[in-house]
Amino acid sequence: MRALLVDPTAPAGLRLGAAPDPEPAPHQALVRVAATSLNYGEVAGVVPGAEPGAVLGWDAAGHIERAAADGSGPPVGTPVVTLGEAGGWAELRAVDTGFMGVVPDGADLGAISTIPVAGASALRALHRVGPLLGRRILVTGATGGVGRYAVQLARRGGAYVVASTGDPGARGESLRALGAHAVVGDPGEVDVPLDGVVDLVGGRQLVAAYEKLAAGGVLVAVGHSGGDDEHFAHGVLYGDQGRHDRAIVSFHLLGCRGLGRDLEWLAGEVAGGRLDAGEAWRGAWGEAGAAVAALRGRRLHGKAVLEVG
């Protein structure tokens, strides 16, 4: 099969080449991939240290080529969206049936491929915050793939949504169109006590956002794109003066149960036009180098989609 292979000598560290077809385990289906989306974390953090010849890729959408031998999962020909630790940047992918969701017939599989890491991470983060109706939620790094989904889902859940982005003047209008009630340039500018935070930046911004939490508030640490450390000043973690029972939590997406149901629901919402996939770039997978360079250079605000084949 053809695949995007890790190659340290190639532009962006990737090249099109040949790789062995994957051999599915009994609980896995073989998927013929139509499209994959790139995540900043994998192109900036995983590709540079990966073994030459490796086939990476977390997100992919396509059709079932061979159903799982154990009878789990959908039948041959079903359109699906899939999540995995690797293997998405290839014509064929072996996927655990618990990490795939059925996609409505006729859906744009390029848009659907943006869902697995970005959409599912946003949904699971908001689940950890708790009930959203009437609550105040901050999303940091709101113009990225996860952030755009988080803003929309929080607004759909009935929250008052504050979006934080490095350039609110240029990006504020688009974030408000997604559902943000207010847009700020830094968590320190938030002027209301928060019930929850979906933090996609980490470091100094995580600390600043935590200090805005009201009693009982929850900060969910999802991303670490800021690249700096978290340093809490003495007293920040005290529980008095309205700071009772605040929490910082994290999770690993592949460790979550029920992801297939999440992926299927998100696919239906994107296919039905009720969620914006946040697609900022689309091209053939031979153009992967350009997309990777744009993501690493922070020139894309949203998702990059590669059409396979």
UniProtKB/TrEMBL annotation:
This is Zinc-binding dehydrogenase. Residues 9-306 form the Enoyl reductase (ER) domain. It holds the Pfam family ADH_N. It comes from the Bacteria. InterPro entries: ADH-like_N, ER, GroES-like_sf, Lipid_raft_assoc_Zn_ADH, NAD(P)-bd_dom_sf.
